[in-house]
Amino acid sequence: MNDTITITGNLANDPELKHTQDGLVIASFRVGSGRRRFDKPSNAWVDAGTNWYAVSAFRSLGEHVHASLRRGDRVVLTGRLRIRSWENGTARGTAVEIEADAIGHDLMWGTTVFTKVARASAPVPEEAWEPTNEGADAWAAPGNPAPSSASPSAEEPRPLALVGTETPF
Fold first, then answer.
1. Among 21, 129, 149, 164, which has the minimal tally of Cβ within 10 Å of its Cβ?
2. Cβ distance 158 to 146 under 8 Å?
3. CA 139/CA 146 separation, integer angstroms
4. Buried b (16+ CB within 10 A) or exposed e, 103-134
5. Given pLDDT bands bounded at 50, 70 and 90, which one contains residue 48?
C-alpha cells in the first residue's frame, strides 16, 4: 500500500533519534489526531475520538524533526500511510504508521522561527559559471549568447547558472 495522507495533530512524545548500522538517521514519534465536534444539545465542543499514528522521519528530515519538535507540539504532517497487522503470541492488533515526507508546526496555534540549514554539496569550479548580458535575471552557459543591448547594473547581484544547464536558478 502506498497511500498518501495528511493529518494535523499533537506529538505524544519527544522524537527519538536512532542511527542504523549503515548510518541511516531515523526519528520516531507518535502523533494523536483528535476530532472535535459541536454538540448542539449541550451547546459545547466535545471530543469525538483520537486516531494514533506511529511516525518515522528519515535522513535530514529526521534530524530536523528531532531538533525542532517536542511533545505536545501541534503539527501538520504528510507522508505515506502503512497499515499492518501484528501478532506476538499472546495478542494481536493493527499498527497504523506514517513515513513522513514533510512535517511542520501548525501555525493556527502558534508561531515558529525557521532556520534554513545549508546542504553539503560538491564544490563547483568557478570556471563553470559565466555571466550573460541579459540583466539581473540571467547567467548562462557559454554558447547561449545574450542580447548585448541590456547590461546588468553594477550594484545588483546577478543569479548564477551552471554551464551546460538551460535554466538559471
1. 21
2. no
3. 9
4. bbbeeeeeeeeeeeeeeeeeeeeeeeebebeb
5. confident
SS3 83: strand
Q: Which residue has the cell 519538535?
A: 69
Smallest CA-to-CA distance from 130 within 87, 91, 159 is with: 159
What residue type is 122 in one-letter code? A
Which DSSP category does 101 fall into?
E
Q: Which comes out higher in pLDDT, residue 73 or 129?
A: 73
Average pLDDT over residues 127-147: 50
Name the grid cell of 15: 522524537
H or E element that contains 86? strand 74-87
**Measured distance CA(99)–CA(91) in Å, rounded:** 25
Q: Which CATH number is 3-105's, of 3.40.50.170, 1.10.490.10, 3.40.190.10, 2.40.50.140?
A: 2.40.50.140
Let me know how long the chain is.
Answer: 169
Strand, helix or coil for residue 55:
strand
